[in-house]
């Protein structure tokens, strides 16, 4: 059986298309997406600040500004904004601070951060006033309101990107190998001599499925490692987030990635058995890769505090939540990880039981010959 | 020796439609004899070969090797068969001819040194030395055919099932192949092959099976057939038998 695995690996490795989809596509996707995200997060933003705003707040803006922000304090802010000097400006109108302008993606993020600075400044000012009136700081209040992002990842953009790229590459990475292993062999009629060898069909099936799995896992691990490395280069805060992640979580993430790769490769094998040609296989599997993308969008919509156990039972939502958790959400327990991995592996086992039985039928093993 | 008793094969298609490809076949392929399977396209020659190889299971009836019912899980029985699956050679484009033979030898658990010797022997007998290290993708149809035939022979089986083995071979290669078949016959191996080349039948075969629409029109020795039909022109015999097709079962 090892002979078969090694031969299939060698044969697949010699196929430029497979090598391209397994390694180059993930790398290109990762580079493109990281560049895309970093561009909108770190591209230069020109911000005008109304000179009439409280000096303390302006000082606070200046102290906490990001490297790619360009703050200009001016008393003719509206005119300069209309002349196109700024992407947006913080303008004082009566007692309202208005963020006005053509924000763009990076501008939106900057405006959000400035608003958060204003909230902090307001609270500090209020605390100082209360104290100056001789009132105990927490005297009249029933509760205090605080903002505390779960984990240091905060807005979940790293989790979204990691999950998005992982799901994209895991779907694309194993596809050529899977198409080659069953549908491709039926198309080229190489399956027939293979089924003649003195090995049970179950063992032949296992060897071929193993190759699909190995290519899928290779592709997905490559993409995960690459995206983490690139994000560390592009985003300074990523290093801090990752440094705070305990080793046990790295191991759990690895196991979850392996489990999801196994699920993806099991589905690939299933689809490859259902089809008789490489092209049919690709056409049939394309919708699955789109379904995988539901995961990151669900995780973006549902806040970490609202995650529930049933979500951990459904791929690809469960793997997405694991990635979000790793990337800063930090709410999943060991039990949640076990639930994710075991539920995924249960589905994998069921699929392999079905596909193993299918491979014993000539219709699926040999195609319509 | 392969014995078929009341074997029939039906393929079931969509909407419960069935297609009976082989009908009630009872024949024996004797050890040390070369038998040709003859018939028009679609007569059931390839299906019969696949059934003999164990690739297809019969819908009814029994296939036995040396008196033992054929069992797909019996690895010894499977190892005793070498199959060539026709002009559609089923080779891996990205492997070289040598890698093909080494791969299948390994799957049949043949020791490395012995594999080397067998590859050298087969490449000499079938004229493959010049392209042994070339990838199959770069080989001509005839060269691929030789690799596929060698693959069927690499584990020294005792039964050879060959589907149109000389299709695509040039005259020199076809003669080399025929010489190889005669040598296997001398070694008391069982050989069953399908062909459309009547001179090959005359040159190699002891027995002939003529199939028509999945049924056996004739099964017996070639010499008897010549005697019955009062000619040695196989083309004439075949055309005449097919024309009478419905009357013979």
Automatic annotation (TrEMBL), chain A:
Source species, domain of life: Bacteria
Record's keyword terms, sorted: Membrane, Transmembrane, Transmembrane helix
Any one Pfam family match given in the protein's UniProt record, by short name: ABC2_membrane_2
Transmembrane segments: 20-40, 160-183, 204-235, 250-273, 285-314, 334-354
Protein name from the UniProt record: Sodium transport system permease protein
Organism: Geomicrobium sediminis
Automatic annotation (TrEMBL), chain B:
Gene Ontology molecular-function annotations: ATP binding
UniProt keywords, alphabetically: ATP-binding, Nucleotide-binding, Transport
Keyword field contains Magnesium: no
Protein family according to the UniProt entry: Belongs to the ABC transporter superfamily.
Protein name: Sodium transport system ATP-binding protein
Residue ranges occupied by any ABC transporter domain in the UniProt entry: 2-238
Species of the source: Geomicrobium sediminis
UniProt KW Cell inner membrane keyword: no
InterPro entries per record: AAA+_ATPase, ABC_transporter-like_ATP-bd, ABC_transporter-like_CS, ABC_transporter_ATP-binding, P-loop_NTPase
């Amino acid at each position: 059986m090892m002979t078969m695995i090694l031969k299939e690996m060698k044969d697949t490795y010699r196929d430029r298309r497979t090598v391209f989809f397994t390694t180059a596509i993930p790398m290109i996707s990762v580079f493109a997406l990281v560049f895309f995200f970093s561009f909108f997060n770190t591209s230069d933003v020109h911000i005008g600040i109304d000179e009439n705003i409280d000096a303390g707040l302006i000082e606070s803006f200046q102290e906490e500004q990001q490297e790619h922000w360009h703050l200009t304090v001016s008393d003719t802010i509206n005119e300069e904004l209309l002349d196109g000097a700024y992407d947006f400006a913080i303008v004082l109108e009566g007692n309202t601070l208005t963020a006005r302008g053509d924000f763009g993606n990076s501008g939106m993020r900057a405006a959000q951060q400035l608003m958060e600075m204003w909230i902090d400044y307001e609270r500090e000012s209020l605390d100082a006033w209360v104290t100056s009136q001789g009132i105990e700081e927490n005297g009249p209040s029933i509760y205090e309101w605080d903002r505390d992002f779960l984990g240091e990842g905060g807005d979940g953009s790293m989790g979204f990107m990691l999950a998005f790229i992982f799901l994209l590459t895991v779907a694309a990475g194993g596809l050529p190998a899977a198409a080659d292993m069953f549908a491709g062999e039926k198309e080229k009629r190489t399956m027939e001599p293979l089924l003649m060898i003195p090995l049970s069909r179950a063992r032949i099936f296992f060897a071929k499925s193993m190759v699909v799995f190995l290519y899928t896992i290779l592709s997905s691990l490559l993409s995960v490692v690459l995206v983490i490395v690139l994000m560390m280069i592009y985003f300074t805060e990523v290093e801090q987030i990752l440094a705070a992640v305990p080793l046990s979580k790295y191991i759990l993430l690895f196991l979850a990635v392996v489990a999801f790769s196994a699920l993806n490769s099991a589905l690939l094998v299933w689809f490859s058995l259902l089809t008789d040609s490489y092209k049919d296989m690709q056409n049939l599997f394309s919708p699955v890769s789109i379904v995988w993308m539901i995961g990151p969008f669900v995780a973006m919509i549902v806040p970490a505090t609202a995650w529930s156990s049933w979500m951990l039972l459904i791929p690809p939502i469960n793997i997405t939540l694991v990635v979000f958790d790793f990337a800063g959400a930090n709410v999943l327990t060991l039990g949640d990880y076990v639930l994710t991995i075991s539920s995924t592996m249960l589905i994998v086992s069921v699929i392999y039981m079905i596909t193993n039985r299918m491979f014993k039928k000539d219709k699926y093993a040999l195609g319509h010959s | 020796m392969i014995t078929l008793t009341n074997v029939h094969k039906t393929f079931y298609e969509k909407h419960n439609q069935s297609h009976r490809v082989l009908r009630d076949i009872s024949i024996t392929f004797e050890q040390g004899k070369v038998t040709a399977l003859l018939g028009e396209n679609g007569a059931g020659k390839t299906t019969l070969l696949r059934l003999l190889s164990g690739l297809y299971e019969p819908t009814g009836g029994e296939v036995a090797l040396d008196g033992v019912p054929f069992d797909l899980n019996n690895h010894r029985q499977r190892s005793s068969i070498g199959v060539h699956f026709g002009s559609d050679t089923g080779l891996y484009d990205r492997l070289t001819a040598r890698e093909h033979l080494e791969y299948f030898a390994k799957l049949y658990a043949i020791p490395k040194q012995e594999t080397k010797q067998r590859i050298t022997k087969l490449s000499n007998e079938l004229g493959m030395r010049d392209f042994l290290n070339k990838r199959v993708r770069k080989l001509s149809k005839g060269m691929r055919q030789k690799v596929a035939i060698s693959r069927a022979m690499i584990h020294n089986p005792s039964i050879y099932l060959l589907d149109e083995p000389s299709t695509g071979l040039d005259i020199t290669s076809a003669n080399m192949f025929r010489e190889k078949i005669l040598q296997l016959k001398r070694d008391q191996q069982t050989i069953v092959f399908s062909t459309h080349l009547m001179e090959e039948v005359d040159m190699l075969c002891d027995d002939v099976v003529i199939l028509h629409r999945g049924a056996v029109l004739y099964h017996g020795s070639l010499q008897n057939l010549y005697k019955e039909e009062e000619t040695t022109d196989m083309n004439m015999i075949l055309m005449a038998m097919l024309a009478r097709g419905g009357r013979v079962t």
